[in-house]
Amino acid sequence: xxxxxxxxxxxxxxxxxxxxxxxxxxxxxxxxxxxxxxxxxxxxxxxxxxxxxxxxxxxxxxxxxxxxxxxxxxxxxxxxxxxxxxxxxxxxxxxxxxxxxxxxxxxxxxxxxxxxxxxxxxxxxxxxxxxxxxxxxxxxxxxxxxxxxxxxxxxxxxxxxxxxxxxxxxxxxxxxxxxxxxxxxxxxxxxxxxxxxxxxxxxxxxxxxxxxxxxxxxxxxxxxxxxxxxxxxxxxxxxxxxxxxxxxxxxxxxxxxxxxxxxxxxxxxxxxxxxxxxxxxxxxxxxxxxxxxxxxxxxxxxxxxxxxxxxxxxxxxxxxxxxxxxxxxxxxxxxxxxxxxxxxxxxxxxxxxxxxxxxxxxxxxxxxxxxxxxxxxxxxxxxxxxxxxxxxxxxxxxxxxxxxxxxxxxxxxxxxxxxxxxxxxxxxxxxxxxxxxxxxxxxxxxxxxxxxxxxxxxxx
Length: 460
Description:
20 helices; 6 strands
């Protein structure tokens, strides 16, 4: 018999039960559901709404249920509607009438809302830690590659010289923003809806602040209708995770390129690559490809959430049950991707000589050549044209700016002097870019320090 069956004269159809049930996916919140019930029962007793004896029986019963679930001794059939009804039903079976008093001053609506918030608060903390570990890995790689010159690209065309350290720190900064987004979401999520009731609170003299404090919330929600209807925090979290996955996907794309023989900047460890069933020479970057692919899955979870919530009137509607699976899926996906991505980066092998060769072949010091003329008084647009002609000449003759004779430079512009070769040396080009945020060693070291301070503040 359903706990809510008093109004009904007949049982629900089997197909209705199958469609209505969420126990198959929301059972993962059993710890949060029991924690919320423990706090609620303690508050009811403190307020004199139920007896201390009933509260003690409820607490002992719930702790016993928790222990049995954790030990694998208690499992629920799919015919129970959801985790909330399953636990309350089992509690009543164990302790009798006291179990029936647990739901006094509470609705399943605010019970669900508090469970989801508690669950996601914990998951955010765990994912935040995983992102911090990935940032730490990138900082470590950067520290070892401050002098590893490579080409930076626009339009996938070689553009200007940088270092592998500078490149890794670009992704570290994307991830830094992901951490702060998760923190912002957690701060807004840190409100306790318990006490909102079904939609208009309750006539019982409950103490909402007491249950909020017992459950570790910073404050209570300010409006009972909003308290049970709000799923902004879920949408915001999946949005954060979508942006995070987008960053991982961009990085994955670069890894796939860098692993190819056309680039061969890196090689993945055997533990993070796969082979072909027919081509024995293949070493495929499947982990990076899977992360790139799973990004679309998280995007789908976000779109599902926005679509479910887009036209719901206040307050609770059963549509909102569909909130759980997308956010659970997004969280699970991100938690699978982050640790393996970090381990993959830690173990990859770099080929600095290939990076430097690629940098030498793409005329990526052309801007530095133009800047050389500009510093000697040539207007930049004129300098740009001169160097453009030089590059065109090099393409026709198979030369590089470094291999051009001094006579060729003089023909292009009398302003050139023999120090041009020093100005267009790749290491010198990088070293000259020492403005804040640039790839020069001192600038990179400042970026590393900034990120280390960021990590230290959060790992304290």
